[in-house]
């Protein structure tokens, strides 16, 4: 069972897969950071840890049910000659949820409706509500992650270990990312725009339109660098 420990190829596979899992988890971290920002300060860290814990558990459970995952790729019906499988339905539903949620968040941020509602009611978002939304999107984000893992490693132990290591790194970095997003409103809007783009990519993927992830991550990185320059320039002018 642990013969892979003595195989250099297995360790290379573990390192590569862990790196990919971290990259594929960036959208998950952004979504969790934005949702946790709606909670009271005393609950933010707890929600972030629970959210990433759920992401890890979801990925491991999906890995342990590989037979079911493989069945998800079986076509269920066709739309305009395009075969639709169970995986496609999950991706389309998740993508639409992400687009709708991010669009509403941008609208609330632009109009200040959330802040007004909080001031009137004296309450912030509920912990259970935030965790439920994170759990829903964890399933969608985990599908991509698990399918990548299955395609890259031969041993279930390597896949599970890669997921645990990746979530550990994400947990370490997520606090700083959450605080940065909270402290920079323009970054929050940019992050929500990223999530809309990822939602569109998920819907496209579900409809058989493959959009290379490299293009999406390059666009995200480029936009982030431009925004970081803007923030730096603004702070310099303020001084």
UniProtKB/TrEMBL annotation:
It comes from the Bacteria. GO terms for cellular component: plasma membrane. The chain crosses the membrane at residues 12-37, 49-69, 89-106, 127-152, 158-177, 189-209, 215-233. Pfam families: TerC. Keywords: Membrane, Transmembrane, Transmembrane helix. InterPro entries: Integral_membrane_TerC. This is Membrane protein, TerC family. It comes from Campylobacter iguaniorum. The lineage of its organism: Bacteria, Pseudomonadati, Campylobacterota, Epsilonproteobacteria, Campylobacterales.
């Amino acid at each position: 069972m642990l013969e892979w420990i003595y195989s250099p190829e297995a360790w290379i596979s573990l390192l590569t897969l862990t790196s990919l899992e971290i990259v594929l988890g960036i959208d998950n971290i952004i979504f969790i950071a934005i949702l946790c920002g709606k909670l009271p300060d005393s609950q933010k860290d707890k929600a972030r840890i629970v959210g990433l814990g759920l992401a890890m558990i979801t990925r491991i459970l999906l890995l342990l049910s590989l037979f079911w995952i493989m069945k998800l790729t079986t076509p269920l019906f066709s739309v305009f000659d395009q075969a639709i499988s169970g995986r496609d339905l999950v991706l389309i539903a998740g993508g639409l949820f992400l687009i709708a949620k991010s669009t509403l968040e941008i609208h609330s941020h632009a109009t200040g409706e959330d802040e007004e509602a909080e001031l009137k009611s004296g309450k912030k978002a509920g912990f259970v509500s935030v965790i439920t939304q994170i759990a829903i999107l964890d399933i969608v984000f985990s599908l991509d992650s698990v399918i990548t893992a299955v395609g890259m490693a031969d041993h279930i132990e390597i896949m599970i270990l890669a997921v645990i290591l990746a979530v550990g790194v994400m947990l370490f970095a997520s606090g700083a990312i959450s605080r940065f997003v909270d402290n920079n409103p323009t970054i929050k809007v940019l992050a929500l725009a990223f999530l809309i783009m990822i939602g569109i990519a998920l819907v496209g993927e579900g409809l058989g339109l493959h959009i290379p992830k490299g293009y999406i991550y390059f666009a995200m990185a480029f936009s982030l660098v431009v925004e970081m320059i803007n923030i730096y320039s603004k702070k310099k002018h303020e001084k």
